[in-house]
Amino acid sequence: MPQRPDRLILIHGAWAGPWVWDALIPELVARGVRAEALALPGDGTHPIAAEDATEADFHTCLAEAITAEPGPVALVGHSGGGTLVTAGAEAFPDKVSHGVWIAGMLILDGRSFDDIQHDIAGPGKRFGVSDHVVPSADGLTSSVPPEQAVRFFFQDASPETAVDAARRLTAQPATGHRLRTKTSARFDALPKLYILAEQDKSVIPEAQKAMAASAANVLTRSIASGHVPQLTQPARLAGILADWFASCD
Predict the structure, then answer these.
(1) Most exposed: 21, 30, 104, 163, by fewest CB within 10 Å?
(2) pLDDT tens across 69-101, in order?
(3) CA–CA separation, 129 and 14 (whole Å)
(4) DSSP run (H or E) holding 64
(5) How many domains does the chain have?
(6) DSSP secondary structure string, 27-52?
(7) Closest CA to 88 of 20, 25, 181, 174
(8) pTM for the whole structure
(9) Residue 210, domain extent
(10) CATH number of the domain where residue 191 is located
């Protein structure tokens, strides 16, 4: 059994930022779990602007966080941040002891979320927020209109919280969150937890179930929430995470 991680690295999804974890971190701390929210290129807090971000920048950012301290780490990815969990675990098998996907993109064998949508919805079809994403004129970034963010991401939050969160979303680099990572037997061996958001309108539950079932060594836990349970149900989510890590001792 892998050693219990010293810390969790929380990886936000597309268009979000470290702020999306603000309600969860104190709940984790109260349960004795140390966690840090990772700033990613283009998220409005990282020094690299969205239009300048490259795939290599994302890998470098993640590598620096994983190796910043000795000891094992767990990677926790929300939504598109799940691709970075896979990439980090595959690149640093001796450092990454556990992987967690929260309504996340657990995608193997160099595939992408476009492939998942093809499998679920059919050729040329998409679901969730995909048809409402607005690309920039130069194609380097994309954004989600606030009203669509409320509809697909934050529908189970209070109206005030939903509107505030939607307004905090930023342009997303075209690179980064849809990394294609070839996985190996060492990734198969990684202990994995998939948090299935049952009311998700973006990464719909059918897609989440398919992704969780596609990998080895996955435990699935469900939460009755929309796409962002760390914002709407932080105490419940923290309890699931803390209980799982405790069970790994």
Answers:
(1) 30
(2) 999 999 999 999 999 999 999 999 999 999 999
(3) 11
(4) helix 55-66
(5) 1
(6) HHHHTT--EEEEP-TTSSSSSS-GGG
(7) 181
(8) 0.96
(9) 7-126+174-247
(10) 3.40.50.1820
